[in-house]
Fold:
Amino acid sequence: MTLCSATNALGQSAEKNEWQKVVRDSPYWVSKGAFYNLKTIRRWVLNSESFCGNKERHILFDKSATFLGYVNDAGSSEATQIKLNRERKNLAESGKANVWVMGAPDVAGYPFALSCNQPDAQLAVSLDRYFGRDKSARLWGTWDGMRIGDTHNKVSLHEAISIVYKKRLNQGRISLPPSILATLAGKTLIESGGQKTAHSAADARGIMQLSRAALKDCGLSEKFHFHRMAQIDCALKLMEQNHRNLKPVFDQVFKHLPKNKSDQLYSLLLIQAYHGGVGRVSQIISDPAVQKAAQYFAKNQRHFSAGDIALGLVFHNLGREQLGFASLYYLADVAVATELACKTKPTIPGCK
Structure:
């Protein structure tokens, strides 16, 4: 293990990978109900509500994503970590946590901590853009043989995605299941908020947050990088490639699941593949070195929701295959946003 440079005020050193031992020692059954729990916590963050009504706060949670407590931020990240570690120690001593691990500003501790301060989260505004209630976010145009709306009849981003999806499906250029449309709505809300000119620090671009490499793979020249129809078309093309690679791997392990659960799980994993790479998702399902969680969830699927399984596959492999907490939160965030989209428009394929 790599030792941190300093010893904390509580007299312990924070080691870079010590939190991973907590993950590795966790039985797979701790994932039961974890998806619901993590969605609840992330909903607080995304909507600045409940314990995250105060953004200058960190909340703590355990292996099942059960909320354990919070601390108000101090004047610096170092001072905040001292407060977090004191609360971790208190939670362990009171029996609310079975163990505690020292954290530092650049080192994860346990119980896990999550900042309430996520200034880019504006789901209500994003929903208005996505469904066209914000008229300035509506669009029309042409792209590669497709035409959507006109100057007098602009359409919402949701309608544009549905139109492009149906066009490419009818042309035989994609075979993605219709249920992907609900999860795709959640993905778009989380990643770009439906903003045409969204541009991340990692240089991901546009409403679908596509990297330069992805845009190049789709044959898009620089002037079309933020073209919304081109972005949708490119995203569907990339998801189709992921779908063709992931589906055979998925079916080998999870084909026996009830259809509704199988469809939900597959949509979540396909979106995770879009976020972190299809190779990474395929490995945690099929690679003998890291597939124990997948095998367990497949065998005991009746005890877990589709979300629990998707989240469990990531959680029990945190620190492997470059899977980090961002991957864990991404699944919950997309699910929260998808539920909001479905509440707004229950007829979207893939909504319950």
In short: The chain is about 50% helix and 10% strand. The CA atoms of residues 203 and 211 lie 6 Å apart. Residues 1-7 have pLDDT under 50 and may be disordered. The longest helix spans residues 228-254.
